[in-house]
Each structure stands twice: as C-alpha cells, then as structure tokens.
Amino acid sequence: MASAMLSTASAAPSASISMNNALKAKVKLGIGSLNSCFPNTKSFGRISMTVAVNVSRFEGITMAPPDPILGVSEAFKADNDETKLNLGVGAYRTEELQPYVLNVVKKAEKLMLEKGENKEYLPIEGLAAFNKVTAELLFGADGPVIKQQKVATVQGLSGTGSLRLAAALIERYFPGAKVLISSPSWGNHKNIFNDARVPWSEYRYYDPKTVGLDFEGMIADIKAAPEGSFILLHGCAHNPTGIDPTPEHWEKIADVIQEKNHIPFFDVAYQGFASGSLDADAASVRLFAERGMELLVAQSYSKNLGLYAERIGAINVVCSSADTAARVKSQLKRLARPMYSNPPIHGARIVANVVGDPTLFNEWKAEMEMMAGRIKNVRQKLYDSLTAKDNSGKDWSFILEQIGMFSFTGLSKSQSDNMTNKWHVYMTKDGRISLAGLSLAKCEYLADAIIDSYHNVS
Ligand SMILES: Cc1ncc(COP(=O)(O)O)c(C=O)c1O
C-alpha cells in the first residue's frame, strides 16, 4: 500500500489515502481538486501536492472504434433474434448458411499429412512452389512477363499483408508519391496506406444516380493526379460496389495511366470467384502486363480457396527487366524481414498442391464455379423478389449488373441502420450486402427488409 504525499505552500494538511501500489504517478493538484478529493478539508491558500495514484501508463489510450466490417459480425453474434442474417463480412456460406471448406483443400491437406511434411521456417520470400504457381495463375503460365522473368513475387500475409508490403515499398522507394483509391473502396485500403505513411487521395468511381460506374469522373481524376501516382484498381469484383469496368473501359484506363506515367497497382482478391473463371477474372491485369507496363498486383486466396484464416496471398511487381525484378524482390524481402520475418507455410502448401496438380486444379475450378453459381442464383432470386414485391416502379436491375460477392444496394446509412435495427439484417453502413452470406430461402425476407428501408426511411 502506498500513501499519498501532500505538500502545501502555506499550511500543510496531512492526509493519507490507501492505494494499490501497482503504479505511482506524480500528480500536481490545485485547491479545487484537493477539495473534491477531501471534501472535509479546508482551503489553505495555494496548495501544491504530489499524489501517488494508481494510474495505468496506458491511461492516455482511448477506445478504438469497432472495425466497420469485422465489427458487424460481433454485433451479429450478440443478436438473439432467430431471423437474423449476417451480410456484413465477405465470406462464402453454403445454402444452409454454414462456413464451407473446399473439398480440394481437404484433399490437399490429407496429401500434406501423408507426406509428413515438416514445419521448418520458410525463406523470407515464402514457398518457392507457391510463388511460381501464384504468378502463373495471375499472368498465365505462358504470359510474356513470366517467360521473361520480369515478375518479383513474394508470398504475403494474404491480400492485406501483400498490400501492406507494397505500401512499405512505395513509402521507401517513392517518397511523396500518392496512391489513388477508388471512391468508395474496401475500407481497409485507407488504413493500410495511412499506417504505411503513404499519402493517398480518391478518384471518382461510383455514380449514386445510376448505381453504376462514374467512368468519366474516374478518367478525369486519374488524369488530374500528379504524374507517377500509383492507381489502385480492383482487378475484378470491385468491393464494395460489385461494379467493374467493361473491357473497353479497361483499355481506356490503361491509356490514361500510360499517358500520365502512373503505376497501376491491382488488388486481386477475387480471382475466379467473380465470374467463375480464373482467366476471365485476370483479364484486366493481363491487359496491362501485355502492354509492357510496370505494375503491382496483390493477390489473396481467402475467397477463391476459402483460406481466410490461413493468410495466404502474394505481392507481385512486374518490372521492365528480369534484373530489375531481382532487385525489387530483394528489397521486398528486406522490408518483410523486420515486419514478420517470414510467412506461414500451411496455406502456401495448400495452394501449391491444388494449383500444381492437374486433377486438383480442375476440381478447384469446378468448386469455384459452384460457389460463384450459388451467388449468382441468390442475386437473381433477390432481384426477382424485389421486383415482384415492390410496386413503386423502382428499377432494381442494377443488382443483376453487379458482379462478385457483394451488392451495393444504394441504401443510405439510416436505411442500413433500419435493416439492422428493425429487420436484424447485418450489413456495412455504406449499404453493401454480401450475397455470399445469403440463401435462396432468405431472399424474400431480405427483399421485404430492403423495400421497407428504402421507401419508409429517409
Ligand atoms: C478488395 C479487397 N482487397 C483485399 C482483401 C483482403 O483480404 P485478405 O487479407 O483476407 O486476403 C479483401 C477482403 O475482403 C478485399 O475485399
């Protein structure tokens, strides 16, 4: 037990208070605070006292707000209503709304167990067999950049960790360069560049009037960006809008980026999961690579192989020569070493086994088509339910035009709040719903909730 030490300038009231001795902090108190601590104490003019109090050194740390996406799942868990629906997090669920482990993943794991593989450290750049197949999956095994060894590939901690590594590279080797992020974008993009101390601004992307792409705005903002900016693009299945540029749009975007000497920076978190085809979903990246442009691509296997918790992905930097790629790779490794030393092995082995084995690879493609197909079916059923139930004449066809896991409903924050508070439908406050968390059986209920929120809440 520690006692409080009091000292006064004129008279000295003696006081002693019991305290936990975990930590002593010296606090200077004036008359007001003295009287509030000791209400029976008289004032003795100017008093200064030093008090040892039980204050944590972390006292100045305020409570962080819940994560806008992962916080939705926490709120969902706390809701006891039977009708509740979690459309917040972008994770695939079965028609019974259960998490799904792909059969090819189970088979690859069985194979790994049978081989009795060890758990030795990976090199900083990750598993060589993984790095090879992941770059080939992205650019095509026969892609010129692969053949000419122009790609620096480093295994990353899924999409997020790969983006973060790229952000560190930008911060170190392109000081002051700006990253342009679509408005809106996946919420974590801004956090990643903020934490890496990379300046960013936004380019127009979404047009609320059409619930479609603001292509003119996008082009104008990319043109207006300082020369040599990094333009962050979603390779396919734009999150949160589900609105992708057309192939003609991509050509024009590449033209403007080339004109302005910008560096394209792709985030590919949904390859194969958007259309069901790995090649179709990589078309945007390949178009830029085939133009001979230098570019960055962050990859994730969270969604397309359902390896959310394995944290497996990669950062690929396409360079103008093999020699440059080798130097860039060495610097990526240098950045990774003090951050996390080297990446985890389990997910890397799964991907290497699945992609590297023709039978498992074909099975994976079939499973991905099945998952993408289920999402397309609920998308269609949701649209059908909305048009059948809503007599206002509102056009809901934008839902069918969107692609991938998400639908951007166009609901405002207060309308989204109504979805949660009244209907127990959990979603992000920007009006995004994850169709991967929806079943055919729940489409009508969801349509009722959307119609009520859209028409009855301003
Ligand atoms: C656009 C986008 N990029 C990256 C990620 C990163 O995901 P992960 O870190 O799980 O690979 C996500 C996940 O939702 C995403 O939507």
From TrEMBL:
Q: Kindly list the biological process annotations in GO that this record carries.
A: amino acid metabolic process
The record's section on Gene3D superfamilies has: Aspartate Aminotransferase, domain 1, Type I PLP-dependent aspartate aminotransferase-like (Major domain)
**GO molecular function per UniProt:** L-aspartate:2-oxoglutarate aminotransferase activity; pyridoxal phosphate binding
Enzyme Commission code: 2.6.1.1
Q: Which cofactor does it need?
A: pyridoxal 5'-phosphate
Q: Which UniProt keywords apply?
A: Aminotransferase, Pyridoxal phosphate, Transferase
Q: Which NCBIfam families match?
A: PRK09257.1
Family as reported in the entry's similarity comment:
Belongs to the class-I pyridoxal-phosphate-dependent aminotransferase family.
Under which name does UniProt file this protein?
Aspartate aminotransferase
- Identify the species of origin: Tripterygium wilfordii (Thunder God vine)
